[in-house]
Amino acid sequence: MGEDIAEKQELLNASVSAWNIACLKDDKRQQAINKFMKEYKKLNPTFTKDDFKDEEENLRLLIRQKDELYPDISIQIVNAIVQEVDGKNHIAVASAKME
């Protein structure tokens, strides 16, 4: 996944967004998904409607997976970066517990 560090970072960013949306209460999720997709469209003006549909489906899939695998965890990820160290990929994550 991801051809280079920049692409891997983009994938990680989308995963972090999905995780953080999944940590929201159900009544806040749709609004957060809409906001994410609005920003995604702004950042990717050359993408097609199918590209946007695929991205939203992937986002919703990741949200469902977080709900299924970690239903009781509501820790927001505030930062995550991919770095290459000695030829291997490493991910550093900073999180904050939600109240």
Key traits:
globular; alpha+beta; two-stranded antiparallel ribbon
Describe the fold and architecture.
With about 100 residues, this protein is of the alpha+beta class. Helices cover about 60% and strands about 20% of the residues. The chain has one domain. The chain has helices at about 5-20, 25-45, 50-70; strands spanning about 75-85, 90-95. It has a two-stranded antiparallel ribbon with strand order 1-2. Helix 1 packs antiparallel against helix 2 (about 25-45), helix 1 crosses helix 3 and helix 2 (about 25-45) runs antiparallel to helix 3 (about 50-70). The longest helix has 21 residues, at about 50-70. The radius of gyration is 14 Å and the shape is globular. The termini are far apart. The model has no long low-confidence stretch (mean pLDDT about 95).
